[in-house]
Design a protein that fits this description.
- The structure is a single chain.
- The protein contains 43 helices and eight strands.
- The protein is mainly α.
């Protein structure tokens, strides 16, 4: 073969580019180099992080794969986009799977649809056409298996055109079999339809119709295949952007028209999604006009667009409304009119409707919606239109809350002074509470009185004075306040309220005897609590309103102790979601040792959970305090009850969350009665995912750490003192643990003295769940 100089230069350039790319990839794949070279590497690290499924069904977690040697299954190779390694390891895994499927006569009985279903799910989910081609070339799967993988892992997100072409090549796009699930079939076809539409390739689309849709029409009565709303957005963007870039007048929308018309002839009507997408894409008039002309009569077209009426209210421009000759639907229609246009700020729709019917704005709460959503242009138009078109006899529309972004004195005055607008002064004052100029104006009207709500008081002294100076508050008044609103109260306005001789009547709703889900929510100010207790009593407050404050603070600790005493006085059972438990756990999370120490009466019930939370959040001081309490509970002679065993095991599992080796060693020694027990340690080693680490290297290091410390005890005086026995590997272990221990320690003579590796039958472990497609560790040679 003779190469031209141009071909040679081009080939040489590609070779250099390939070498450069490999060098760059080697840097990216090295965590140390990434950290040293790049200033912001978080997003790079995150790019190789994947939430995936390892081991049995209950084992899920974040795993960071940084070394090929740490991958434990074929699925993981797909998840880290290493299809090449997936292919390289497949035969070894497949040979092992076949060994696990032999019957007593040595005959392999393997159902590929069952064993490889999970693997196919991952391949389809990752849209890996190369891996899919590899699998479909090797094995014949049922159409139902492929359909379920696409439906359950892609949902309404279409497969790529590359995956589609693989499915077509191996005859998986023809859904004509009578024994398949109809529901899965329709979703599968729907996904394929969207895929070929997105391709924008008429040849591919037409062939799909011939191969798949023409035959299926005689089996399934398909009038409409449901497509997600944005099915056409990608192709509209692509085709119209091509027009813009090429600066020509070629009508690429004809491709869309051809596809929709062809589908329509097959009984699949996608004009609805196309209609919505055309409005989303700059109200594309050409597409909308084509849809209009596709109907045999105008009445049919009206019925059609009424089904998308709320989208029209939100999106339609004036040109679109005129083009489709928009008519408001009747109230018995499928999609009746709403106030979406005013809420979403579609001024064109409001103008069009007022031109059609000057009473339109009085039919629904358009003004209220526009005010609440901050749509100022719509608000101005509606106010003017109401003034112009209101009929004699007191025709009105309502006004209540105004969004802060458009709040102004001028706007409020326009609303108040309009005789055709009915004002809800209570709600209007609530929304203007931090605007003294507006508040003063509203209160100066003098024709009403407003009950004050302390939880709305802000620090602005003028607003506070204005509210308290109302005539009906001249005498001491009991102001109603719900208990749950106390965290919203600020100190200064409450001081003024008490100074004026008023008091609070605090109400606790029946369903609020226990705290709401307040995680991260605002808690009561200490000075507010002290003011209420001073002027009323501690009994006027539910204990939880006090205790929840101490999930974030540890000052004035005596107040917390009083609240705990009040809670204990109820003689009620302590619920896991109650105030005591929530405050204790959050205090452990935040490292509030003084708060934790206040819960001595609950330590027996809460210590284990708090210990776990403290370690998970690196609150070592709290963890040590709780650990010492736990060590008192469990004596050297362990109880054998299963419930006690589970609690003890959870302590050891929690130790895997400790990052600092010295801290780990402290707790390992603290719980010596537990960490010398071979049964407990054997079980704890097998489940390192309890540390919730996103770094697999860190996970295996923690397995090594536990093995190391157990070995030190076993080779020391503790072996006789605690009658220690060798650790045993269990068949319920996570695959990453089994692979790591066998790979690293199988030939380690010293470790084999205190871990019984030789008795572990890896082949039996492998047969436990063949669907995992585990990669056998390198030292393992299976010749059964």
């Amino acid at each position: 073969m003779i190469y031209s100089s141009d071909n040679y230069l081009d080939t040489n350039k590609k070779k250099k580019n390939s070498e450069t790319s490999l060098q760059f990839k080697s840097i990216i794949n090295n965590r140390y180099l990434r950290t040293k070279i790049f200033n912001h590497v978080n997003h790079i690290h995150q790019a190789i992080v994947d939430r995936h499924f390892i081991g049995r069904e209950h084992q899920k977690g974040w795993t960071l794969i940084v070394k090929i040697s740490q991958v434990v299954s074929l699925q993981e190779f797909i998840r880290i986009n290493r299809t090449d390694w997936f292919i390289d390891h497949f035969d070894r895994v497949y040979d092992t799977i076949k060994l696990g499927c032999k019957d007593d006569n040595g005959v392999v009985k393997l159902d590929h649809d069952i064993v490889f279903k999970d693997l196919l799910d991952v391949i389809v989910k990752r849209d890996d056409s190369i891996a899919l081609k590899f699998m479909l070339k090797r094995f014949k799967f049922t159409l139902q298996t492929i359909m379920q993988s696409v439906y359950h892992n892609r949902g309404e997100q279409p497969i790529s055109i590359e995956v589609y072409q693989v499915l077509k090549r191996y005859n998986y796009i023809n859904a004509t079999a009578y024994d398949i699930n109809v529901g899965d079939s329709l979703w599968y076809i729907n996904n394929l339809v969207i895929c070929v539409i997105n391709s924008g390739d008429i040849a591919i689309f037409d062939q799909f119709c011939i191969d798949c849709l023409d035959p299926i029409k005689s089996i399934f009565n398909i009038n409409y295949v449901r497509a997600y709303d944005d099915v056409f957005i990608n192709i509209i963007n692509k085709l119209n952007n091509n027009n813009d870039n090429n600066n020509n007048n070629n009508n690429n929308n004809s491709i869309i028209f051809h596809m929709v018309e062809r589908l329509l002839n097959l009984g699949i009507d996608l004009r609805g999604p196309l209609f919505i997408n055309a409005m989303k894409y700059s109200n594309n008039q050409e597409i909308l006009n084509w849809i209009k002309n596709s109907f045999d009569s105008f009445d049919m077209f009206v019925d059609f667009y009424h089904q998308s009426n709320r989208w029209i209210e939100r999106l339609a421009s004036m040109d679109t409304l005129k083009l489709i000759d928009y008519r408001e639907p009747k109230y018995n229609s499928f999609n009746i009119s709403s106030a979406k246009a005013s809420a979403d700020g579609n001024l064109d729709y409001l103008r069009y409707m007022v031109n059609q019917n000057d009473q339109y704005l009085f039919k629904m709460s358009h003004l209220e919606n526009a005010l609440v959503k901050g749509q100022l242009k719509c608000v101005n138009f509606i106010i003017d239109a109401i003034s112009q078109y209101a009929q004699p006899g007191g025709q009105t529309t309502k006004c209540s809350t105004i969004d802060a972004s458009i709040m102004s004195l001028d706007l409020v005055q326009r609303l108040v002074n309009n005789p055709n607008i009915e004002i809800d002064y209570y709600e209007l004052i609530r929304s203007s509470i931090d605007r003294p100029d507006i508040l003063e104006y509203l209160l100066s009207l003098g024709s009403f009185s407003v009950d004050i709500e302390p939880s709305l008081f802000l620090q602005d002294p003028k607003s506070i004075q204005l509210l308290l100076n109302q005539p009906h508050l001249d005498q001491p008044t009991r102001v109603l306040l719900f208990m749950k609103k106390i965290p919203n109260i600020q100190t200064r306005p409450l001081e003024l309220l008490y100074f004026r001789g008023h008091s609070l009547e605090i109400l606790c709703q029946e369903n609020m005897m226990q705290p709401p889900n307040w995680r991260g929510a605002q808690v009561a100010d200490i000075e507010v609590l002290q003011l209420i207790i001073k002027h009323q009593s501690i009994q006027s407050l539910s204990p939880w309103i006090i205790m929840t404050r101490y999930s974030q603070y540890d000052d004035h600790i005596e107040l917390l102790k009083d609240a705990i005493v009040a809670e204990l006085a109820k003689n009620e059972p302590i619920h896991i979601d109650g105030a005591v438990h929530q405050v204790f756990n959050t205090a452990c999370k935040n490292g509030l040792i003084k708060v934790v120490e206040c819960f001595d009466d609950y330590i027996g019930s809460f210590a284990m959970g708090g210990f776990e939370i403290a370690l998970a959040n690196n609150q070592i001081q709290v963890a040590k305090y709780l650990g010492q309490e736990l060590a008192k509970i469990f004596s050297k002679k362990l109880q054998t009850k299963e419930t006690t065993q589970r609690v003890i095991l959870s302590i050891l599992s929690v130790l895997n969350r400790v990052e600092d080796d010295q801290v780990f060693e402290y707790f390992w020694n603290l719980f010596k009665a537990l960490t010398t027990n071979s049964v407990l340690v054997s079980r704890a080693i097998g489940f390192p995912s309890h540390n919730r680490s996103n770094n697999r290297h860190l996970t295996t290091n923690r397995v090594d750490r536990m093995i190391k410390h157990y070995g030190q005890y076993y080779n020391g005086c503790e072996r006789d003192e605690y009658q220690m026995k060798p650790l045993t590997l269990l068949y319920g272990y996570q695959a990453v643990v089994i692979n790591h221990i066998i790979t690293k320690y199988q030939n380690d003579v010293l470790v084999n003295q205190f871990i019984d590796i030789k008795s572990f039958d890896y082949f039996e472990y492998y047969k436990y769940d063949l669907k995992l497609c585990l990669i056998p560790p390198v030292p393992i040679i299976i010749n059964k």
